[in-house]
Amino acid sequence: MKQLLECVPNFSEGRNKDVIRQITDAIESVRGVRLLDVDSGWATHRTVITFVGEPPEVVEAAFRAIQKACELIDMRYHSGAHPRMGATDVCPLVPVSGISLEEAAEWARRLAERVGRELDIPVYLYEAAASRPERKSLAHIRAGEYEGLPEKLAHPDWQPDFGPARFNPKSGATVIGARDFLIAYNINLNTTSTRRANSVAFDVREAGRIVKDPLTGKPVLDERGEPIRQPGALRGVRAIGWYIEEYGIAQVSMNITDLKATPLHLAFEACCESAERRGLRVTGSELVGMVPLRVLLEAGRYFLKKQRRSTGVSEEELVKIAIKSLGLSELAPFEPKKKIIEYRIAEDNDKRLINKDLRAFANEIASESPAPGGGSVSAYAGALGASLGAMVANLSAHKRGWDERWEMFSEAAETGQRLKDALLNAVDEDAHAFNAIMSALSLPKSTENEKNQRKAAIEAATRRAIEVPLRVMRTALESFALFRQMAEVGNPNSVSDVGVGALCARAAVCGAALNVLTNANSLEDRPYAQAVSSEAIQAIEEANRLEQEVLTLVRQKMGF
C-alpha cells in the first residue's frame, strides 16, 4: 500500500492573500503533493493549510512552506485572536494510510532538525514526536505565546529540541510533531433542545461531566477542592451539544482525537445508546472535512458483523454500508470522491486500466501498443479467479441453514478480496513496468557516461518488470488454498465456479511465469535471473498440480 501522509501547518497570517498564495505555491512546487484545503481567518489572523502525499514529498513541501513563511511573515507586527508563537506556529504530520504514527513521528523529527539547522528557528517537538512527556501537549508548549519566548528560551527546561536556544524576533518558534487523524463528527438528534444534546455529549465525551450534589446542585469537590468528574464513555473524544438553525435540529458535535481508542462507528453507537436512554433518537450523522478511507472500511465491516453477514465484500460495498449505517447523507449527499482523502487525491484514477469497462479494456489489449499485454492480462485473470473464490465464500456465508458457519466463510471471502485487490493493482503496475523499460531504452547513449546511465536504467526497469509478474505468480498461487477450501466445504451449488476460479488462477500463474522468464533472459544480474527463472518454472508445475487437485474435488462434488 502506498504510504500517504497529511500535513496541516498553521501559519500566523490570515489577511494578506498574496502571502498565503506564496506559501501555497511553495507547497505545490513539490511534485506529488496534493493541496486539499486552505482555511484563513481574519480575526484569528491565521491560515490552516492541508496537503497530502508520500512522506518524502510531504516533508519537503512542509519545509518549503515553513521557509517561505519565515521569509514573508514578521511576528513583531502580528496580532490575532488565536494563540501563536511563530510565523509557522504548528506543523503536525498525520498518517493517512500505509504508515504508522511512529513512522510519521520519525519524519516529523527529520523535518524539525532541518528547520532548526537551515532556518535558524527554535523548534519544539510535540504529540507522538515529543522528546519528553511534558512536551506532548501543544497548549503546554505554546504557553506564554510569542511574547513569552525570550524568557522561555533562557530557561534550562525550555531548551528547544532543534535549532538555536535564542529568540528569533521575526519568526518566533515553531512546534512540529505527529498526531493521529482528528475527525470532526456531528451526530444528528430528533430534538431541538441544546440541553438534551449536551446531556448526550457529556455521557460520551472523555471529560464526562462534573458530579453535583443532588440536594444543593453544587459541584462535589475532592480533597484538593477540585470538582469531581464522572468520566464519559469514549476515550479521545471531545463533545458538546448545540442547535443548528440551518437544519432545525440539535447535534452532538465531536472531535475524535484518538481513532484507535474510539473508531468512528463506536462513537456513533455510543451516542445512539445514550440518546435512547434519554428518550431521543439518532437520525443520522455528519462528517466535517475529509476522512481516511480506513475509517469507513472499519465502519462497514463493523455493521456487517453486527448483522452476522460476510465482511468479504468489495471496498466500494464497505463504504456504501458505512454511509448508509451512519446516516451520513441525511443532511446533504455524502460523496465519497470528495470526502475520502485517498479518493480525492487519486486524480489519475480514470486513466487506470482497471477503471475501464470490459469492452474498453479488451480494446486496449487488442490495440497495436505492446502494453498492456500478457502481464496485465495474467494479473486480471488471477483477479477474476480470486473474485470467484470470494463469491463462493459469500454465498456460503449467507446460505440458509449455515448461519453458525458465517464467520469462517466471511474470513475466506476477505482472503479472496485481498488477493483480488492485489492482483487488480498489478494490472496497471505491469503496464507501467513495461513502459519503464521502453523509456530506459530511449535514453541517450552518445557518451560513455550516458551509456552507463542508460545501462543502469535498463537493468533497474527490467528488474521491476520481473518483480511485478513474480508477485502476480505468487499471489495467484496463494488463491488455490481458497479454491480447495470452497470446493471441500463451500456452497455445493457454486462448486463449478470454484473450478473456473482455479482455471483462471492457473492461467495467471503460467502467464506471469512466462513474463518472468522472458525478462530474466536480458538481465545482467545472472544469479538473480537464474533464481527467479527457477521459481517461475516451479510455479508453473505447482499451478498445474493444484489446478488438477481442485478440479478433481469439483468433479467429485458434481458427480462425474
Architecture overview:
With 560 residues, this protein is of the alpha+beta class. The protein folds into 3 domains: 4-178, Formiminotransferase, N-terminal subdomain (Formiminotransferase-cyclodeaminase, Chain B, domain 1); 183-336, Formiminotransferase, C-terminal subdomain (Alpha-Beta Plaits), CATH 3.30.70.670; 350-558, Four Helix Bundle (Hemerythrin (Met), subunit A) (Up-down Bundle). 52% of the residues lie in helices and 14% in strands. It has 17 helices and 13 strands. The strands form 3 sheets. Strands 1, 2, 3, 4, 5, 6 and 7 form a 7-stranded mixed beta sheet that branches. Helix 13 runs parallel beside helix 15. The relative contact order is 0.07.
Keywords for this entry:
Four Helix Bundle (Hemerythrin (Met), subunit A), 560 residues, single chain, Formiminotransferase-cyclodeaminase, Chain B, domain 1, alpha+beta, four-stranded antiparallel β-sheet, Alpha-Beta Plaits, 3 domains
Write the layout of secondary structure elements.
Blueprint: E1 4-7, E2 10-11, H1 17-28, E3 34-41, E4 46-53, H2 55-72, E5 88-97, H3 101-119, E6 123-127, H4 138-142, H5 149-154, E7 174-178, E8 183-189, H6 194-204, E9 209-210, E10 229-230, E11 237-244, E12 249-256, H7 264-277, E13 282-288, H8 293-306, H9 315-326, H10 336-339, H11 341-345, H12 358-366, H13 374-397, H14 406-441, H15 448-489, H16 495-520, H17 526-558
Parallel strand pairs: 5-7, 6-7
Antiparallel strand pairs: 1-4, 1-5, 2-4, 2-5, 3-4, 8-12, 8-13, 9-10, 11-12
Helix pairs in contact: 1-2, 2-3, 6-7, 8-9, 13-14, 13-15, 13-16, 14-15, 15-16, 15-17, 16-17
